[in-house]
Design goal:
heterodimer, A: 9 helices, B: 45% helix, elongated
Chain lengths: 256, 172
Amino acid sequence: MTKMQNFTKGFFKENPIFVYLLGMCPSLAVTATVETSLGMGILVILVLTASNIVVSLFKDYIPDQVRTPAYIVIIATFVTIISMVTEATALTLFDSLGVFIPLIVVNCLILGRAEAFASKNNVVDSAIDGVGMGLGFTLGLVTIGIVRELLATGGIMYGIYLPFFVDSPITIFSFDWIINLFTDGFEISKYGIKIFSLPPGAFISIGLLLAIFNFRGVKKAKKAEIAKKIMIAEKKAIALEKKKLAAAKLVKAGDE
Amino acid sequence: MLDKLKVAFVLFLIGSLSGASIYLVNEATEDEITLKRYEQQVALYEEIFPAIDTFETIELDGLITSKITILDESNEIIGYIYQGKLTNNYGVLSVLVGITKDGVLGNVIIASSTNTPTFVQVIKDGHLSGFAGQDINNDLEIDTRTGATYTYTSVVDVVTAAAVYQLENGGE
């Protein structure tokens, strides 16, 4: 696997949310807005990359029988550090993410990559894997966040939770901009589908996105399944023919 | 035996390094976090009393957890902010109630909440401004239909408790 393949595999082919269905807890809980999704994604990238690097650095020194608790301690350390840094630099994001920051420790994506990749590869590849899978996770979270926020409020805002690059909250996009080209005074927020800002809406959004994301893959898998069944049936038929021929030869030899 | 000692040593080393890292980061961020939390509190108090210069906090027991005396630039008391915290069926709610020294309700703010965000927003958008300007010596006028009964009822409980406290203690 090349370094570029290693970096990009987490975006679509091995996307943690839509392919592996890992990290479902934060995917449902913090994706009510694009900003909180982005914030959580950034934290996961940092924790995943740092823990991958450290696990890869010390993989030859951690005994096999205690590798899981050792990895958990390493991950928990980085989560604690990231939590304190977030509280110091982005307090509103810290308050809005709440208990889901410490829950990054038990995000199966992070322990999974430590076990499956970092413990078996060098530091550079592990770091690239961490960044790539983290970016794929963030892409998934932000996609869910866009769907939920657009349907619930009719627009996307920035600057409420992430205090970077702007002095006050701004609207990145709103359906009002388009609708008010044809009419006046329309406020899309009054007609938002509020359920999408609640947990049931999270499930519905993820379900729909999973269906779209895996549609082609499911079709391909079905075709491959059918082709495999046909091939097995053909092989069985050939084997049966061979058995019959062999049995016929035996009978003939016996007669003679 | 040596194998077990090696395992124990590795775990001890990982634990020690983790502890040391967390300690160092805590030392580096503690002051900043304290400052940010303080600024967050002051920002909330400024929403209630814009003329705030300094304040003094007294911790209390019961529904009203603290009383904050608000002072202006000339060290005169402008009013009081009462912080109430209670738990309803949907979670914990923290409410700040401003009352001037003359007994007039100021702004009421939901400082933090674990209630359903949509319902909290309903109350924040349309049912908190109605408290401002009411005299605490009279019966409280409240909205009868809000669409977020649990959250609003909890806010009313805190506002009522704050008014009762001020009336009983005369603002002292």
